[in-house]
Structures are given as structure tokens and as C-alpha cells.
Fold this protein.
Amino acid sequence: MQHYGHVEKVRLLVVDDDPPIADLVATVARYEGWEAVTANSGEEALRRAAEFHPDIVVLDLMLPGLDGFAVLDRLRLSGTMVPVVFLTARDGVADRVAGLTRGGDDYLVKPFAVEELMARLRTVLRRSAGPAFQRSVLAVADLTMDEDTREVRRGERLLTLTPTEYEVLRYLMRKSPTVLTKAQILDHVWEYGFGGRSNVVELVISRLRRKLDGDGDGTDRNGTDGNGTDGSGTDGSGGDGAGRDGPQLIHTVRGVGYVVRQVAG
Amino acid sequence: MQHYGHVEKVRLLVVDDDPPIADLVATVARYEGWEAVTANSGEEALRRAAEFHPDIVVLDLMLPGLDGFAVLDRLRLSGTMVPVVFLTARDGVADRVAGLTRGGDDYLVKPFAVEELMARLRTVLRRSAGPAFQRSVLAVADLTMDEDTREVRRGERLLTLTPTEYEVLRYLMRKSPTVLTKAQILDHVWEYGFGGRSNVVELVISRLRRKLDGDGDGTDRNGTDGNGTDGSGTDGSGGDGAGRDGPQLIHTVRGVGYVVRQVAG
DNA sequence: AGTTCATCGACAGGAAAACGACAGCTCGCG
DNA sequence: CGCGAGCTGTCGTTTTCCTGTCGATGAACT
């Protein structure tokens, strides 16, 4: 039915017996402009699926009563072809799940990172939308990211990013030119329930900068101005952070967070 | 995407009384951009065939009621020349089937691997597409694979691959330059219902690398790097992973999976 | 100047991947 | 019908390198 790319909102059904988790996912999805409903049991899931007609389903496999596998079977038996993204416990039934991803489905291990889940949902939707091969490429200035091949390049230069770096950058690029707080980045990119409050984000940003701004000594702090609204101001200090590859793209907004964009202002 | 010459979408009819199996096949086919419909009984199959006019049919021989042989007869009697790929149980009527494949049809034993089935479908389609059957040759950099002759070569050198290695490589090449996860590879190349969670994939990749990257001492980790992007950084240091035949083509994307592609710059 | 916030080098624990070695199987050949 | 070769997959070890913590240095704001 509806497909990604369509004008209408994506309809998502989230099935998880842990309400907080289900809500978390639903909330993020709604934030992206999707319509989302949740179900906390297998039975409810089937009921919701029947009336809501989701375009995609997030299904926890460990459900009391009618478990995820059973729900999947019933869904398929009723002729529905909705793509499904499964959630499984770390060491749980991961093996059995593997066999289910052949279709267009996919799966994720709990605890997962929200951005990771959203990324998979988008991918699955894109693929199930038919001749599937429109690639999804994010771009900001001369920085591009191909989500299928995972190739990231600054201009011509191909960058080598670690998984975490890749995730953070993707989130920043996707939201560009919005400024994101460290908390937001932490919440989206790290697994939910990541206790470690630390400067991890700063760390990753630092490493990212070095790689994509080619910037050795970089440290050009410029974006800076105080309050969120970024505004214009900033630069000032001369060097626009050009390390070797052009202007700096990751800017620090002191007291707020980070943003990826061409300098502006 | 993958071309057989058809401009329009391939129309596939899948006949299997086990809905999950039929759906599995249909889903994968749709992924490839085909149009697919399923039928769960012989009667339904004939009905669907009449209205859908498939270009090719996947037909399970063990159907309750009107069985596969009967369905085939009726189809032929009605003048249809659609090529058919049969599915049979491991020890079942394999012999009798042999006699049916004359027309250019083919058959596969259950349980099968999805990629294997898709490969046969493509082959049969190609042959039935007219006398002028172009060969289907996959190529990535100087690595080529002829799906008809099963010849694989790196540059001039002919490689000797075992069945499993061949399948894995074909899947990787077909999807190149997309990064595939181990789960995807496992799901496509191994028979459905292969529970084994193990490092088989890593193993095969390792063996493939040794053969096609000519890599004796191998372990040239270079392409390998973090996520996705690999690449550039590497070169420099002399070894481009070139064992003897050029740059490494199978790259590890840590935390994600594997890709076949030229490092590109 | 003092205080707060950010950057980044260095290090260690640990997760993921590579790979050698071995055993069960299949299949072809004698 | 039995033997042997090659293919596969499991185990366990080794290697690689990703990640987050600490702490010192440096900027920016008040």
C-alpha cells in the first residue's frame, strides 16, 4: 500500500510488551512525521494490524503469550506482506531470527539505538517500495553519505569511519542544519539505557572532525555563539577551519551542541 | 537492475501449499523488482496463471489435490509455454522430475537457498528470452563471473571455487557495491532453516579472499576498516592488499558485514 | 582572573573478525 | 561396495582495532 516516498504518512505498528520501549519508538517515529500505534501483546498486535493497516511493523520476539514468531505467522497467513523489523534479546533467539530476514525484513538486537532502528526502518521501506533501487544519499556541502554502500566522502576523498562515528555523522547530517545537543546525540545514537554520562560525544566529534575536516590542528572553534539559535554571528575569528579540504563542516555551538553545515552567516 | 533484456518487470507465479515458503520466494522476487503472486493450491495456481500471465512459474510438486504434475499438464494443454522451475522434496520424485525439464525448465530440491532459486530463475528466463541469449557476466573491477559457465576469473587467472564459495561470491558481486551483513549472506546463500549460528560466513570469506585476492599471507587488512567506507586511507602504505593480483576486492566493514568493490578513491 | 566548557592525547578493556586445525559427509572412482 | 578426496562447518586461539575513561591543556564567557 503506501510506500515510502508517498505523500502520505508512513504508518508504523510497534509491538513490544515493555510499554516504555514501545512508546519510545512510537514517539521518535511520530517526531519524524509518521503515524504510529503501539501494541503490548501478540493478540493486541494482530488486532491493531487488522484495523490500522501499517506499512511496516517493529516486532519484539519475546512476547508473553502469543510470541513474535506466532504473530508473524498469523500476519503472513492473513495475506499481509508488511515488512517487519524484529527486536531480539542480545543472546536470545538471534539465530532463529537470522532465518527470517530473507524477505525484506530485518532485525535488531536489544538494547538498540533509536537512530539505528529508524535507519533500518527507512531502508526496509525504501526497498519494499518497489524497484527498490533508488539509493539514499545524504549530502551537506561537499560531504556525502551513501547509506547503502556506507561510503562517506568529503569531496572526492573517501573517508574511513568507525561504526560509532558513522552513526553520529549520519544523525547530524540528517538533521542538518539543526543544532543537536550532546544529550540528543547520546540518546539517538547510543543504546537506550546507556548509563555512561561522559564526554563520549565530544570524543567522537573530535575524531570525526579530524577525519572529515582533514583538520589536524583544526580546533577552529568558530561556530559558537551562545544560544541555540545559531545565528549568524560566529565566525569572526578568521580561519574558517579549513584544514585541507575546505571549510569546516562540524561546528560547535557552545553551551548547546553541534551542527553540521556549511558555515553560513 | 539486473538485466535480462526485459524492459518490463518479470512476472512470477509462485505455487506452494506452504504459505511461508511461497511468500518468501515472492518477497525476494519483489526485491529484485519483479512482480510476484502466489498460489497455495493447484486450482488456485491455474486460476492465477490464467489471469496473471506469468513469465515464469515456480511450482511445488507436492500439492494437495491437484498436484504439480497435473498443474503442469493443464498449463501445457492450454497452450502456455511459460517456463517452469519445479520444487521437490529431497528424496521425493526427483527422478520423475528430471524427465520434465526438457523444455528449458529446471528444478530444485527442497530445502533450497534463495539465491540458488533466483539464479535458476534468471537463467531460465534468459534462455527462454529468445535464441539470442546473451551471457550473463557479473564483473567488478577485474573480477568476472560467468553465470552460465560458472567461470570466475581474476584478470586472466581462472579461479576454482567450491559451490559455497561461488554462491557467496555471486551474491556479493550481484549486490556490489552494497555492504551485506553476515545475516543477509547466511539467509540468501544457505538453505532456509539453517539454524546454525556460527562463523561460517567469515570462514568462506576467508577462503574466498585467499583465492581471489591471491593473498598468500593475506591478512592484509587494509580495506578493512571500520565502517563502511573504507578505502582511501589505506593505500599509501604500499600494500594495497595486492597479493599478486591487484587490490583487494573483498572488504570487511567491521560491525556490519562485507562488500566486494574496488577500493575506489 | 576565575570559572565553565570543550578538545584531544593516551591507555586499557573488550568485542569482532581472521584463521588454523579437525571431524563428519558426500560423492566420484575403482 | 568400499576407499579416498574434497567440501563444510565447528572450535578455539590469535589478532585487530573500536570505544569509553581520565586528565591535562586551551578557549570563551562573566
Observations:
- Confidence is low (pLDDT under 50) at residues 216-241 of chain A.
- The first helix of chain A runs from residue 19 to 31.
- Chain A is about 35% helix and 20% strand.
